[in-house]
Structure to design on (162 residues):
């Protein structure tokens, strides 16, 4: 329980810190449209046990987004795959930049090439930031907390916006 509370407080602090520019901004509302558009991306995800490649997608439904991340790793012929779909609310913090927070689920499976076993599902809380660095290129990063005691997954990546 103490670990859960520490992660929730950390994520709340990150969201609060990244929201300060929105609260202090006195420019017109059109300047804070945020980043629009859907994207697919590749990146690196890491938790307490190591890092792995990941793929992420975002479907923009303004101001809500549907996001999905797939990551996994193999060791000695055994592969683990993690699927994390979430629904987030996006807050525009400037032209082509958002912070987001939301809820979702996770599913883990392990395969040895001959058989696959599902290790179950759980709820997640996610918060992050994203921004376009050109017309079609996006940088993103977030933290996903697993409420079933699975820890926190940190992710950064680059995406193609369409």
């Amino acid at each position: 329980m103490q670990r859960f509370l520490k992660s929730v407080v950390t994520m709340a602090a990150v969201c609060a810190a990244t929201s300060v520019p929105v609260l202090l901004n006195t420019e017109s509302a059109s300047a804070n449209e945020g980043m629009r558009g859907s994207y697919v991306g590749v990146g690196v995800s890491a938790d307490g046990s190591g890092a792995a490649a990941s793929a992420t997608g975002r479907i923009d439904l303004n101001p809500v987004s549907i996001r999905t991340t797939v990551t996994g790793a193999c060791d000695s012929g055994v592969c683990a795959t993690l699927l994390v779909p979430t629904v987030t609310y996006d807050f525009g913090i400037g032209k082509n930049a958002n912070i987001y927070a939301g809820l979702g689920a996770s599913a883990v499976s392990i395969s040895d090439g001959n058989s696959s076993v599902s290790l179950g599902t759980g709820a997640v809380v996610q918060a992050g930031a994203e921004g376009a660095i050109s017309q079609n290129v996006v940088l993103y990063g977030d933290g996903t907390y697993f409420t079933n005691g699975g820890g926190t997954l940190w992710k950064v990546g680059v995406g193609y916006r369409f």
